[in-house]
Amino acid sequence: MDSPATTSTVRIARWTPGGCVWCGSTDSIETYRNEPRCGLCREKEAVIDEAKHFIGMYGLRPLGGTLASDDEEEREYRVTARDAREVLNRIRLEKLPDPAVVRKALRPRAAAAVAAPATPRPASASAPAKAAPTKKSQAGVTGIDAIELQSRVEKLLGQLTAVDEQISALDGAQGLPARARLKDLDKQRTTVLSTLAALEKARRRQ
Ligand SMILES: [Zn+2]
Question: Which residues surround ligand 1, an ion (CB under 5 A)?
């Protein structure tokens, strides 16, 4: 457990108009996914988004649960996303507001404050430092370079060969342990193949 001193953990009980819909803070509120969110929340959400993007691109096991990972990079995404989630859970309002109530409260404000809601994304370029990580990190993930993809593909192909070898070594083996092992290997094989497929897709997008 982290010491509560690491972030301000004054938990707010209820949402009030003008506050972040998740934690109630009024610190650097900006619209995030059509909802008013504070600077800290947006930063943490962006970290989780980035990890999700990475996980999705490689067809990896969804976030949450164990941190078990194929490599350091994946592990780092999982760890930072988990930490971000912990912070979000810690600061969460005791009672989250009803989305309809939020929308209603926002309407007059939105009209006054956000004159042009048509282009929510590009606006972040001119936004202050707090908003920057989202944009930068997204560019970083989508701009993943060909060399890295290639090395992942090679690693996976190596894994696939190893799994196939173990499968053929088990050929003809009887008994429960052998069958369980075979089932496990088949599962591994499927995972490797789907990751390869995801990588191939990512490569074609480049
Ligand atoms: Zn917040």
Answer: 20, 22-23, 25, 38, 41
